Amino acid sequence: MGFWCSFLGFSPQFWHFLSPWPWGHLGTAVTAVSPRAQVERVITIMQNPRQYKIPDWFLNRQKDVKDGKYSQVLANGLDNKLREDLERLKKIRAHRGLRHFWGLRVRGQHTKTTGRRGRTVGVSKKK
């Protein structure tokens, strides 16, 4: 599990979904073959999760803005999608995009007393 979970977009929950334990749905299909074939099998499942009856709510990219499809995005693709989403939000001047642009908290946290690290407010000394 540790090897697979080191990839971006591959969570421990996804591994348990593929695991050979009783709660794993596709475990026997993955672990019943040689290690090299096992790696190829997991990669194909990750690239086409809907063909293997993995539910839509389990995927990390739901209802993509451009094409409206559900998919599991991995590694660099996940970083690219996140960057594209933030750029789109900034471009349309959405509240969430503006908060990202200003470097403020986005998800409704309080900002009066917490989160003061990182930015410095210039106070000049007396001479």
TrEMBL record:
Name of the molecule in the record: Small ribosomal subunit protein uS13
A cellular component term, taken from the record's GO annotations? small ribosomal subunit
Q: Which UniProt keywords apply?
A: Acetylation, Cytoplasm, Isopeptide bond, Ribonucleoprotein, Ribosomal protein, RNA-binding, rRNA-binding, Signal, Ubl conjugation
Q: Does the keyword Nucleotidyltransferase apply?
A: no
Q: Say which family it is in.
A: Belongs to the universal ribosomal protein uS13 family.
Where does the protein end up?
A: Cytoplasm
InterPro entries noted in UniProt: Rbsml_uS13_C, Ribosomal_uS13, Ribosomal_uS13-like_H2TH, Ribosomal_uS13_CS
Q: Chief subcellular site?
A: cytoplasm
Q: Name one GO biological process term.
A: translation
Q: How does it assemble?
A: Component of the small ribosomal subunit.
Signal peptide extent = 1-20
Q: What does this protein do?
A: Component of the small ribosomal subunit. The ribosome is a large ribonucleoprotein complex responsible for the synthesis of proteins in the cell.
The answer to keyword Cytoplasm applying to this record is: yes
In the UniProt record, the gene name given for this protein reads: RPS18
Query: What Pfam families does this protein's entry cite?
Result: Ribosomal_S13
The GO terms this record gives for MF are: rRNA binding; structural constituent of ribosome
PROSITE patterns noted in UniProt: RIBOSOMAL_S13_1 (PS00646), RIBOSOMAL_S13_2 (PS50159)
Q: Which SUPFAM superfamilies match?
A: S13-like H2TH domain
